[in-house]
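Bench notes, afternoon.
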Amino acid sequence: MSTSEFIGSGWGFPVRVDATGGIRLVSSGTEIEESIRLILSTAPGERPMRPEFGCAIHDHVFDPADARTAGRMELAVRDALRRWEPRVDVLDVRVGPHPVEPDCLLLDIRYSTGDTNDPRNLVYPFYIIPGEG
């Protein structure tokens, strides 16, 4: 089975039209990346018909941008991708501060797809709401 058969293809997210006026489809690595971004950007409980779907990183939006929050977010990312994106093997998740924005954490997710030996990474910015006071 080739990588494209394993990964397949599907609607792009956000849903858009292509040059012919049909639904834009994505395949291969693009589909996986969009799927991971969708999982990370969805808070559990946000989807009425699938309330468990998403990633619990949103529970930490009011937490300080420190090592404890980073550890909890790393675990939430691993758990969500293990559950909702079985086509990837998560190799590493690193959560660290943004080099310029103090209220932003960068989630660096390193993964491979299926049985391929093709490591990839995705960096997802997560903004903490600063405390008042």
